[in-house]
Specification:
Blueprint: E1 13-14, E2 27-30, E3 39-45, H1 49-63, E4 66-72, H2 78-82, E5 89-94, H3 98-103, E6 107-108, E7 128-140, H4 151-156, E8 164-167, H5 173-186, H6 190-197, E9 201-204, H7 207-215, E10 221-225, H8 228-231, E11 240-242, E12 249-259, H9 265-275, H10 278-288, E13 312-313, H11 317-335
Parallel strand pairs: 3-4, 3-5, 8-9, 8-10, 12-13
Antiparallel strand pairs: 1-9, 2-4, 5-12, 6-12, 7-10, 7-11, 7-12
Helix pairs in contact: 1-10, 5-11, 6-11
């Protein structure tokens, strides 16, 4: 387990059933060349779609280009989707994908200074942070008066005591981060911890599926960004709340990168500079629901109701890349029993 400052050195199936098979990455495309301005294609995730919609008129006014946005279902689909795609910039690469992305030799140096507000010692010539936050479990206050505050508490609870939506880690970067979170905090006891938790887990197809189950009252808790309850608050009332874990919360940092051989390298560099500027970062906070990497960016008023985690959990990126397959298989074996 590392401190943050040491960062770089349809219906979900009950887990007693087999995990669902996965299909090819799904992509949608918005924007097109208008015949007068050059088309500037980017690739991002469904969670960044709303932010990208806000960026489009802002950046097009600066660059004299037409922004064409291709959207992958999840961050785990970004690298596969890049094959055969004309994207010149990729936005939304999670920590868990950075070493694989680096090894692919598909990315060029971005030339930007590290953003000031990232809660980690960051120095990477290829990947530029554009958003950060923490992963945790949020609960429905209409179903629970007290939520579990640790993985051991979940594991020890009775088989019918809780229903918890967790993203399929083979298809969701948040689900994969949950595997890393468990491993970082419980090491070789992780398999036993997952096995104990298994009767309470509902494996969701995606990030949106897990949260939809929570909102529909089908589960008591769900894996989510710690900011999500604030975005769902209404008139100061919060139906959903984070349950702070004794182990700490898992740090998420999402990055952008320039694709090597980009057709418009000057526009690509301009776009990355734009992404970390206050106006674009305000859209990250309001529409992506994560914290901005620029300290002057405006954030939703509801963020004022949130308490930052006292302890950030992560794994060394190289260790995570080397062990990811092994730890994912460990999870699958545990929940399939």
């Amino acid at each position: 387990m590392n401190k943050t400052s040491a960062l770089f050195g349809g219906l979900g199936l009950l887990v007693c059933l087999a995990l669902p098979a996965l299909g090819a990455p799904k992509l949608t495309v918005a924007g097109a060349e208008d015949g007068e301005r050059p088309s500037f294609p980017i690739l991002t995730t469904a969670e960044f779609r709303a932010a990208a919609e806000a960026w489009t008129p802002l950046f097009e006014a600066q660059c004299g280009c037409a922004l064409a946005v291709t959207v992958a279902d999840d961050a785990l689909a970004l690298l596969p989707a890049l094959r055969g795609n004309a994207a010149e910039v990729v936005v939304g690469l999670p920590l868990s994908a950075l070493e694989e992305a680096r090894a692919s030799d598909r990315f060029a140096p971005h030339g930007q200074a590290a953003p000031a507000a990232v809660p980690a010692a960051w120095s990477d010539e290829l990947f530029l942070p554009v958003a950060y936050g923490w992963l945790g479990f949020v609960y429905d206050t209409t179903r629970l008066t007290a939520a579990p505050v640790s993985f051991p508490e979940i594991a020890k609870a009775g088989p019918n005591a809780l229903r918890i939506a967790v993203d399929d880690p083979r298809a969701s970067s948040a689900g994969l981060d949950a595997v890393a979170w468990m491993r970082a905090t419980h090491k070789d006891a992780a398999a036993a911890m997952w096995a104990g938790a298994a009767p309470k887990l509902v494996i969701a197809r995606s990030r949106g599926d897990a949260l939809a189950k929570l909102e529909a009252g089908e589960v008591d808790l769900a894996l989510a960004a710690t900011t999500w309850p604030a975005l769902k608050s209404s008139e100061g009332k919060m139906r959903f709340r984070l349950t702070p874990f004794r182990e700490g919360q898992f740090l998420q940092i999402e990055s952008a990168a320039i694709v090597k051989g980009a057709k418009h390298p000057d526009i690509a560099a301009q776009f990355l500079a734009f992404l970390v500027a206050p106006e674009a970062q305000a859209a990250v906070a309001a529409r992506r629901g994560l914290y901005p990497v620029h300290p002057a960016a405006q954030v939703p008023d509801a963020f004022g109701n949130l308490t930052l985690p006292s302890w950030s959990i992560t794994l060394d990126a190289r260790e995570w890349a080397a062990k990811k397959g092994e730890w994912l298989a460990e999870f699958e074996r545990a929940v399939a029993r």
